[in-house]
Design brief:
Layout: H1 14-22, H2 30-40, E1 45-48, H3 55-68, E2 84-87, H4 91-105, E3 112-115, H5 122-130, E4 134-137, H6 139-147, E5 158-161, H7 164-169, H8 173-180, E6 188-193, H9 198-207, E7 212-215, E8 226-232, H10 238-246, E9 254-257, H11 261-271, E10 277-280, H12 286-298, E11 303-306, H13 308-311, E12 321-324, H14 331-338, E13 348-354, H15 359-369, H16 386-390
Parallel strand pairs: 1-6, 1-7, 2-4, 2-5, 3-4, 5-6, 8-13, 9-11, 9-12, 10-11, 12-13
């Protein structure tokens, strides 16, 4: 399928086209060019694309165009009937989608609202009772509202599942099935995911009818503009290595990932006296998360420490580096993590700190990527023997070899503070 190079070629409603232009978008991304035409034609769409590729507009624009084409009669209360449902795995992603619905929906008279947990239900209930055309929701909060009979899904014409693989990771698939079970069988269903594990393929078979499959990159392949490196280090030296990396002025905005919420708090606390840092995870309130994200976007903090689920939906321009303080248990989470940098036309660097206990995780990640991640050995906390030991696994890479280790530009020089492997804070300090 050839990509269309102009929004004018996508048969969008003139008002939507004008709103797209006003927002500063000049040409569709590949996923938009490939997904919008079949979606406009009423087909179910299965889209596979990495984060940062423009998936939101790929479903929001055709969704709005369909709703603008007809105005059904109001329900018994006189309110607008709910006609479109978008499910997202996290509050941040739901908010991002809701913002797009509001921005472009205003051009065609389509109204939407967003509901998610962690905040009071009252305002969300009022918005739904007044009537909206589009509901963007996280599954847990939507099920709460449905149990309270605040809204119903019987007139939904189009349903969207965004980042379906993260729905799976978060344990939302059963809730998704229950929710969509309350919508008409003849609805149009659009499903987008960065990866397509077997469970998601099974879900598409249950929810979609002869979907058009569109893909803009090989499954689980990271963005080409992201340079990836692994740094072998002892667990006790990870904190000092992270500080060493952050001392480089090339790290203008860094997203640091940990496996657990407690780990995120420990890393942020450990950096507090050294760096402008924020932390977000599932135990933080929505207002705390929004304030942390706003400070990160505004540059008031240079480092954001996050868990995988909390980071979903983060759409921050100019993230120069993703640093995996911990390697994820789920290999596909690695793909999502590094997709936070190298977005749009920018380049980015992903650095993974790997200790002895994480070598199996690294092996699984490289099998998924079908390539070796280059090793950066030139750092003051290199764990001797770690790289060689990790590279001995014969079945490590399913196909392809990969490049040898090298240091990214701007790294490998002495730190500004002069700290070396034997100086600075105590080696026994824990996060």
């Amino acid at each position: 399928m050839s990509d269309l190079t102009r929004f004018e070629d996508l048969s969008l409603h003139p008002a939507l086209l004008e709103a797209v232009r006003a927002a500063g978008f000049t040409a569709p991304t590949p996923i938009q060019a490939r997904a919008i035409p079949p979606a406009l034609a009423g087909r179910d769409v299965l889209g596979c694309a990495q984060t940062g590729t423009g998936k939101t507009a790929a479903f929001v624009l055709p969704l709005l165009q369909r709703l603008a084409a007809s105005r059904p009669a109001a329900g018994p209360s006189g309110a607008r009937p709910l006609r479109a449902l978008v499910l997202a795995p996290t509050r941040e992603l739901a908010t991002q989608i809701g913002d797009a619905v509001t921005l472009f929906g205003a051009a065609v008279g389509v109204r939407g609202t967003t509901v998610y947990g962690g905040v009071a239900e009252g305002p969300q209930r009022r918005a739904l009772r007044e009537g909206v055309d589009v509901l963007v929701a996280t599954p847990g909060r939507l099920e709460d509202l449905l149990r309270g009979r605040v809204t119903d899904l019987r007139r939904v014409e189009i349903a969207v599942l965004d980042e379906a693989d993260r729905m799976l990771d978060a344990g939302f698939v059963a809730a998704v099935r229950r929710i969509l079970g309350g919508t008409p069988r003849e609805r149009q269903t659009l499903l987008f995911s960065a990866t397509l594990p077997p469970a998601i393929v099974e879900l598409t078979r249950a929810l979609q009818r002869e979907p058009v499959s569109v893909s803009v990159a090989p499954q689980a392949t990271p963005a080409e503009r992201v340079e990836q490196h692994v740094l072998f280090v002892s667990r006790g030296d990870k904190r000092r290595l992270l500080e060493h990396l952050l001392e480089d002025p090339a790290v203008t905005r860094a997203l640091v990932f940990t496996r657990t919420k407690r780990g995120a708090d420990r890393v942020a606390k450990g950096l507090a006296g050294f760096e402008r840092v924020e932390a977000i995870h599932g135990d933080r309130s929505q207002s705390q998360r929004e304030r942390a994200l706003e400070r990160f976007r505004a540059g008031a903090s240079r480092v954001l420490v996050a868990t995988d689920l909390a980071a979903r939906g983060i759409d921050v321009e100019g993230v120069s580096h993703v640093i995996n303080f911990d390697l994820p248990d789920d290999s596909e989470s690695y793909v999502h993590r590094i997709g936070r940098t190298g977005r749009a036309a920018a380049s980015g660097i992903a650095l993974s700190l790997c200790d002895a206990d994480e070598r199996d995780r690294l092996v699984r990640i490289e099998r998924l990527l079908r390539q070796r991640i280059p090793v950066r050995r030139e750092h003051p906390y290199a764990a001797s023997g770690e790289a060689a030991t990790a590279r001995q696994a014969p079945a490590r890479v399913a196909a392809g070899g990969g490049r040898g280790g090298f240091a990214p530009r701007g790294y490998g020089r002495p730190s500004r503070s002069g700290r070396g492997a034997g100086s600075g804070r105590s080696a026994g300090a824990r996060w």
